[in-house]
Write a structure and sequence with these properties.
- This protein is an alpha/beta fold.
- The protein has one domain: 3-Layer(aba) Sandwich (Rossmann fold), CATH 3.40.50.
- The protein has ten helices and ten strands.
- α3 packs parallel to α6.
């Protein structure tokens, strides 16, 4: 479904990616691990068209446009690091904004999202800024789902959240992947939960792919265990 071929990206004079290549198959969940500054977030931004890039990025074997809006319309949803909800708007208004690329109305999408996040139905008129950190992360995820993406880009969904909330969020993402065959590319500092949830993973270092393979194999890799799993 998604293929990056020797992708480079930069912020002005600073080059952040140095020839990154990776793939995500249809219905697959793939994790990207690595230390701070390794290029993980930039990799997602390169896919969604929010950073200057070179190289090839293919979606369904067609080159992706260098436009965030056009990329979204093709079926790629991006949940950025730091939640990104509109704090002054209500839960429902945030969800409606997630469907802005849709041409045929909301249909059953609200009921679908409320099925994954039942608390949102009862609190749909509550301002997003009054939600807890975990609830805001769930709202950011739900808002992306309103666009009916085929591929979901998740950037550090566990950042600043309690372990029990992280488990809940990844449990929902796994359900989406397993039940709806939603393809997922997730960047995550919590290597243990990322490897447990994904089928394959890549490790980035200094803007390059240092390791790749099945998640189970990487979890047994001594270097990965020492650097990211803590044992």
């Amino acid at each position: 479904m998604l293929e990056l071929k020797a992708v480079e990206a930069r912020y002005g004079p600073v080059q952040a990616l140095h020839g990154v290549s990776l793939t995500v198959d249809e219905g697959e969940m793939v994790a990207v691990l690595g230390p701070n500054g390794a290029g993980k977030t930039t990799t997602l931004r390169a896919v969604s068209g929010t950073v200057a890039r070179r190289g090839q990025i293919l979606f369904d074997e067609k080159r992706l446009p260098r436009s965030a809006e056009r990329t979204s319309r093709l079926g790629i949803g991006h949940v950025p690091e730091g939640r990104g909800t509109f704090s002054e708007l209500t839960v429902l208004e945030n969800l409606r904004l997630g469907a802005y690329t849709r041409r045929n109305g909301l249909g059953d999408d609200l009921d679908r999202v409320f099925g994954f996040f039942p608390w949102m139905r009862e609190r749909r008129d509550q301002p997003a800024g009054t939600l807890s950190g975990g609830e805001q992360q769930m709202l950011a995820l739900a808002r992306a789902l309103m666009g009916r993406p085929r591929l979901l880009l998740l950037d550090e969904p566990s950042l600043g959240l309690a372990p029990i909330v992280v488990r809940e969020i990844f449990g929902i993402v796994r359900r989406l992947n397993e039940e709806e065959k939603l393809s997922v590319l997730v960047v995550e500092q919590n290597a243990a939960v990322a490897l447990e949830s994904s089928s394959r993973a890549y490790v980035l270092e200094s803007g390059k792919v240092a390791l790749e393979g099945a998640s189970e194999e990487l979890a047994r890799n001594e270097g990965v265990r020492r650097s990211y799993l803590g044992y």
